[in-house]
Amino acid sequence: MNKLFVAFLTISLMLTMGLTAQIIDEAPKDALVDTETLINTEPITLPSIRAADIMWSKRIWREIDFRQKFNQKFYFPIETQANWKSFIVTILDALKEGQLTAYDISNTDELLVPITYSEITGRQTDTLRQIMRRPYPPYDEYDTTIYTEFDPTKVMRLRVKEDWYFDKQRSQMMVRIQAICPVMIKERNGQEVTEPLFWLSYPESRDVLAQALVFNRENSAMRLTYDEVFWKRLFDSYIYKEENVFDRRISQYATGVDALLESERIKREMFEFEENLWSY
User: Fold this and answer.
1) Among 56, 168, 180, 215, which residue's beta carbon has the most beta carbons within 10 A?
2) For residues 226 and 213, what is the distance between their CA atoms, to the nearest angstrom?
3) What is the mean pLDDT of residues 131-137?
4) φ and ψ at residue 227, rounded to 5 degrees
5) Assessment of whether the complete model's pTM goes beyond 0.90
6) pLDDT band per the 50, 70, 90 thresholds, residue 7
7) DSSP strands (E only) in the chain
8) Distance, CA of 232 to CA of 226 (rounded, Å)
9) Cα–chain-centroid distance for residue 126?
10) 226 torsion bin: left (phi>0), alpha (psi -120 to 50), beta (else)
């Protein structure tokens, strides 16, 4: 009887020690400070807008290419780390968890029809049927099907829909981003093809973007968030459309160098509009 009691007591102590070890055990520290303290819990508060103060406005569509050196902060890292994700992974994780709502692509770029995460990934699963030839005699042909699943690393551009306006109360030209759209780059028949995925309301996305860290190549101690990147305009882009009576993009009436010059013309006109309001 005593032996059974001693055995039971020993097993109980071992289980208790095991549970205690699991509770006390913590992951080793892998940073100078807790990275959670670097994340903004709330997005930056934007100034209020009164309709009576808007004396001029223009809607602009621009595109950010992640392959440009200044924009690489959106594309990397390829492999997700603890509090460091690429822009598209940050967005997709939020969509998967139901924190954001994606909207289907429309001809007018309006946020009209919501779509789910499963629909987004399902549309990017390509099925390609090809006729192949065997590498050995008699070199006969056979049919094969090639399946290509959704690859987030193919998202290399971001479209931004924004409204520029002159606030007469503040005497300042200001901008508000209204929506963003990730764009995939695919190769078909040796040519580069762009495929927009979905639209997101930028104001609704700010809570997620304010909690996603971005690498700062100038100083790692001063980490940024994606919300700060957009707010501070820390990206390089080009205009591909301005609101116009024909509702057409620049590519519909200009190509190559002419399209780039047209983009610069639109940017210069907005700058000159503000400058011409003042007398020196």
Assistant:
1) 180
2) 7
3) 77
4) -65, -40
5) no
6) low
7) 54-65, 102-103, 114-115, 126-133, 141-148, 155-167, 172-188, 191-196, 199-201, 213-214, 224-225, 238-242
8) 10
9) 22
10) alpha
What is the CA 248 to chain-centroid distance, rounded? Answer: 25
Distances (CA, A) of 180 to 70, 102, 120, 223, 280: 19, 10, 15, 23, 38
Q: Please, which residues have CB within 8 angstroms of residue 174's CB and are 6 or more apart in sequence?
A: 47, 164, 165, 166, 167
Residue ranges of alpha helices (H) inside the chain are: 2-24, 72-75, 87-96, 117-123, 202-209, 226-231, 257-275
Given a contact cutoff of 8 angstroms between Cβ atoms, the answer to whether 213 and 83 are in contact is: yes
The Cα 202–Cα 175 span in angstroms is: 13
- SS3 assignment, position 26: coil
> 63-86, pLDDT tens digit by residue?
999 999 999 999 999 998 877 899
Spatial separation of the C-alpha atoms in residues 61 and 213, rounded to whole Å: 25
> Mean pLDDT in the chain?
86
